[in-house]
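User: quick one, sequence for these tokens?
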């Protein structure tokens, strides 16, 4: 038994290495790779310990856009428990401790990609948005250049990429307000292929960019596919110019795969002219950690004026539980204790907050129950675009 608390930052190199060994085995990777990854997270690693390290996780400090405003968030990743100690409740204990830490000292929301959804759902996370990759055959894409020029981007263009990304994705519910660490993931060059960057400009003014890698169909294949990490187009011309850029690789490449919103503007044109396949779809989960801060911290339509009450049920964080009154005007939500509203599971609040589900869907899912007099006000408050993100973490 250690004198240290059961949950906390690793106590030195030995505990970091113990956690690195757990994630390396869990995610089928090289120990040294994961050891460097864990060390890079510095103080943003947490472990659960007894005599030794039982499991751990890492925290991405970032923001997530809701209603056009960046809400500070923790992104939780690398959740792992020693294989011989699984199914004994240690991951539950680890996540509950992390949730309490976030509630007391962290941001008002927490986001993650689940490999075991039940683990997180038990603690109040709920599916609240997706990450969708679509694929298209290059020889079917239009070649028109739309009057824009494309130039290769370099690390000197990072600010341009950041500004274009924010301009385009800020008003997309769920997209990350990327931290340097998340940008580091997006810009990381794989060992076996370069990372390509092209910026679409009109008269020297950037309107979009793309970042992508290449992947051979088989190791010995001559032809390859284009795997796009970022496709950012702030105008239809930029979207067309980037699509045409992919098409110009059709003599040597077969397909392009890109992450876009489920209702992305670029799909209007693509779906009109050819078949677009959904090639990958993952769903992320959101946790409303502090009800008042989370609700007051996101953005809203400033033309919506509405009042509603909810009665939150949150077993893991009882501080959130109980009656709340929500008042929205001029794009600002004010939240205070009290009122008489329907029962809303904290998981349902996450799905409503992101815009993933409205009151009718929440009722069908069993996450909202009781008086429906407030439903239309709640629907109006949280109406928005379908939540998504291009990032995985
Ligand atoms: C997933 C993992 C972290 C769970 O750890 P654990 O200590 O075995 O989990 P717990 O015993 O605390 O289980 C907590 C809850 O999650 C559920 N759960 C755990 N692993 C699950 C799995 N693989 N599939 C479905 N549900 C799972 C349990 O049933 C339990 O719910 P219950 O109490 O309602 O039955 C562990 O299996 C692991 O390290 N796996 C490899 C890495 C991984 O997949 N990480 C998750 C990344 S998001």
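Assistant:
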């Amino acid at each position: 038994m250690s004198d240290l608390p059961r949950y906390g930052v690793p106590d030195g190199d030995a505990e970091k290495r113990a956690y690195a060994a757990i994630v390396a085995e869990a995610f089928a990777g090289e120990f040294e790779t994961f050891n460097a990854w864990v060390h890079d997270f510095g103080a943003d690693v947490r472990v659960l310990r007894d005599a030794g390290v039982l499991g751990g996780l890492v925290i991405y400090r970032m923001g997530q856009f809701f209603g056009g405003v960046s809400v500070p968030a923790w992104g939780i990743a690398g959740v792992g428990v020693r294989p011989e100690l699984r199914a004994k409740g240690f991951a539950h204990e680890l996540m509950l401790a992390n949730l309490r830490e976030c509630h007391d000292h962290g941001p008002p929301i927490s986001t993650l990609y689940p490999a075991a959804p039940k683990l997180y759902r038990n603690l109040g996370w709920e599916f609240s948005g997706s990450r969708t990759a679509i694929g298209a055959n290059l020889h079917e894409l239009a070649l028109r250049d739309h009057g824009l020029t494309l130039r290769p981007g370099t690390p000197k263009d990072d600010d341009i990429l950041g500004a274009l990304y924010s301009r385009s994705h800020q008003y997309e519910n769920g997209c990350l307000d990327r931290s340097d660490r998340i940008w580091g993931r997006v810009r990381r060059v794989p060992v076996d292929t370069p990372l390509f960057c092209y910026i679409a400009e009109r008269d020297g003014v950037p309107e979009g960019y793309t970042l992508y890698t290449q992947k051979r169909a088989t190791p010995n294949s001559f032809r390859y596919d284009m795997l796009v990490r970022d496709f950012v187009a702030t105008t239809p011309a930029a979207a067309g110019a980037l699509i045409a850029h992919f098409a110009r690789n059709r003599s040597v490449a077969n397909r392009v795969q890109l992450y876009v919103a489920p209702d992305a503007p670029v799909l209007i044109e693509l779906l009109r002219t050819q078949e677009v396949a959904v090639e990958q779809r993952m769903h992320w989960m959101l946790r409303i950690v502090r009800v008042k801060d989370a609700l007051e911290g996101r953005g809203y339509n400033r033309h919506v004026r509405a009042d509603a009450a909810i009665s939150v049920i949150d077993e893991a964080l009882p501080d959130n539980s109980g009656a709340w009154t929500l008042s929205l005007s001029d794009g600002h939500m004010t939240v205070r204790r009290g009122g008489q509203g329907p029962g809303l599971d904290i998981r349902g609040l996450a799905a409503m907050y992101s815009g993933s589900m409205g009151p009718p869907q929440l009722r069908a899912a069993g996450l909202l129950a009781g008086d429906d007099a407030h439903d239309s006000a709640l629907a109006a408050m949280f109406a928005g675009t379908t939540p998504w993100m291009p990032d995985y973490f």
